[in-house]
Design a protein that fits this description.
Blueprint lengths: L15 E2 L14 E6 L14 H7 L7 E3 L6 E3 L4 E5 L4 E5 L14 H12 L16 E6 L2 E5 L7 H4 L25 E7 L3 E6 L14 E6 L3 H9 L5 E5 L4 H5 L5 E4 L5 E7 L9 H9 L3 H8 L31 H10 L11 E5 L3 H16 L5 E5 L1 H9 L6 E4 L8 H4 L24 H9 L4 H18 L4 E5 L2 E4 L3 E2 L15 E2 L2
Parallel strand pairs: 2-11, 2-12, 15-16
Antiparallel strand pairs: 1-13, 3-4, 5-6, 6-8, 7-8, 9-10, 10-11, 12-19, 13-19, 14-17, 14-18, 20-21
Length: 515
């Protein structure tokens, strides 16, 4: 963030309804919305759960201090009434509204916000958000509705990071996986019946009348089989299929019984988490072989219905102000290079290369890319395996035991300020969320360039810093980035007011259903 200003993300195309529903009467408030998702959640913990299916549900159960506008991608105050850099740009003053209550009736004050921020910053809690908040040195309470986030200088990532922080009551502690979620958001958590449904309902006492939900209740149902999800929608047994395979888009676009909505390909990258702690991918050449092994153009054409962007090697699309165009040609598709690099890595043709692609059940795109990569390696004489596991086991092996070699995912935050993009996960080494084992020493100068971009307000200096970051990435390739994913959602024409969120921080408050 710049002094007394909000950080902004790159301009990008707005999500648009591909097929317009017939004109109908104004929707009436109330009713139930049934949403079909690909898998069940694996935790109720707001700071631990990383699955998109959980973000889609929990964002409206809790309040966050800021939010990312789903159409402009700008970060704006939400629970916070305002943000202001003070104390010679070493404190971000956060102003809260009065009269906010949690779902259990307790008042929300600066004490709860401080508790939440301090807990996420505590290494023992194990939150993937810890890296987002790393620049915060201290949280100081001024009074019940004001607090200061102390830093060494202006930090561009903080206001965007706060959009991911779910505020919880101090009295609940940090072991939130064992209790029903209690937030202050526009929806209340009702129940989770594993492998059957999650239910949330309207919070009739919500403090912000402008965001009072139109719908009474939302039922989220996990349905792993894609065709079953679509059949349920077409039969009227679900109102929406959230995030389905893009190969189904042309068929559903042509079906006037549904409305298809697309996210722009800006937030999520198809990428591979690569465990660089152990052979074979502790060798640079082996990692580079992964970079040359995927025909990006063919993948997007054949498995994404031509939707998305095959421009890879960067977390940003070519429309983002921080994008470095020189990275575009760093890795393309060349099977000869794959074979040469594997031999240079010390694996004579067909020998010594023992690894598998770890794939979660219910994510067809991950299996598609893994299968293509497997075939590419096989074409030059190597035989990696594919191991399919349930999503909870997949997540645990990546985030906890680190028991994997390669795992395809679609990490996000490509629409955020680059300071946030590079503050956690695949891209940033000093955090627990970096599952591949990248350390600050892995790439000399990499972390320094990230910090330079995060702490200056000058756009050109920031652009130069992030150019260096992207260049160092492709030279050392801790993990290949294969292009940028869109997301598709299909709903009945009776569903009104739905605007998808590229980062899956989905709000449902404006959605209504005509019956």
């Amino acid at each position: 963030a710049q002094p007394a200003a909000q950080p902004t993300a790159a301009p990008a195309a707005q999500p648009t309804a591909v097929q317009q529903a017939p004109v109908a009467a104004q929707p009436k408030p109330g009713g139930t919305l049934t949403v079909s998702q690909s898998v069940d959640i694996n935790t109720l913990h707001p700071w631990i759960g990383t699955l998109n299916v959980w973000k889609v549900i929990k964002t409206d159960v809790y309040d966050q201090l800021s939010f990312q506008d789903p159409e402009t991608f700008e970060f704006k105050p939400k629970l916070a009434r305002s943000f202001e850099w003070t104390d010679n740009n070493t404190s971000l003053l956060v102003t809260l509204p009065g009269g906010v209550s949690f779902h259990n009736g307790e008042r929300l004050t600066a004490e709860d916000v401080k508790f939440t921020l301090d807990s996420i910053r505590d290494q023992q809690v194990g939150s993937w958000l810890r890296g987002f908040l790393a620049p915060i040195k201290d949280v100081q309470i001024v009074d019940e509705t004001h607090l200061k986030l102390k830093t060494d200088t202006v930090e561009n990532q903080i206001i965007p990071a706060l959009a991911y922080v779910d505020i919880t009551p101090k009295g609940m502690g940090t072991d939130l996986a064992k209790t029903n979620p209690i937030g202050s958001g526009p929806f209340k958590f009702v129940e989770w019946v594993p492998n059957d449904r999650i239910v949330i309902e309207r919070n009739t006492s919500y403090w912000d009348q402008a965001r009072m939900p139109k719908i009474d209740r939302i039922v989220f149902k996990p349905v792993t089989e894609m065709q079953t999800r679509i059949s349920q929608l077409l039969a009227g047994n679900a109102d929406m299929v959230y995030d389905f395979a893009l190969l189904e888009v042309p068929r559903l676009q042509a079906d006037r019984r549904v409305v298809v909505t697309l996210n722009p390909p800006a937030e999520q990258s198809f990428a591979a988490y690569v465990n660089i702690r152990k052979p074979p991918f502790n060798k640079l050449e082996a990692r580079q072989a992964l970079g040359w092994a995927l025909d990006r153009e063919a993948f997007f054409k054949n498995f994404q219905a031509g939707i998305g962007s095959p421009v890879g090697n960067s977390p940003f699309t070519d429309k983002h102000w921080a994008y470095e165009p020189k990275t575009a040609d760093a890795y393309k598709y060349d099977l000869d290079k794959v074979g040469q690099l594997l031999e240079q890595a010390g694996f004579p043709k067909g020998q010594g290369l023992d690894f598998s692609f770890l794939v979660p059940i219910g994510y067809p795109e991950f299996k598609q890319i893994s299968t293509i990569l497997q075939a590419a390696f096989a074409s030059v004489g190597y035989q990696p395996a594919i191991e399919e596991v349930e999503i909870a086991q997949w997540s645990a092996r990546l985030n906890q035991t680190r028991d994997f070699s390669v795992a395809v995912d679609y990490p996000g935050r490509g629409t955020a300020d680059p300071a946030l993009t590079y503050s956690a996960g695949l891209l940033y080494p000093p955090t627990a969320a970096n599952v591949g084992g990248l350390t600050p020493e892995s790439i000399p100068g990499y972390v320094d360039a990230i910090r330079e971009g995060a702490t200056t307000a000058d756009r050109e200096k920031r652009k130069a810093a992030y150019s260096k970051v992207q260049t160092l990435w492709v030279e050392n390739l801790p993990g290949p980035i294969y292009g940028h994913r869109s997301a598709a959602h299909a709903s009945l024409p009776s569903v009104k007011g739905f605007v998808p969120h590229a980062a899956f921080q989905q709000s449902w408050t404006a959605v209504s259903v005509e019956r």
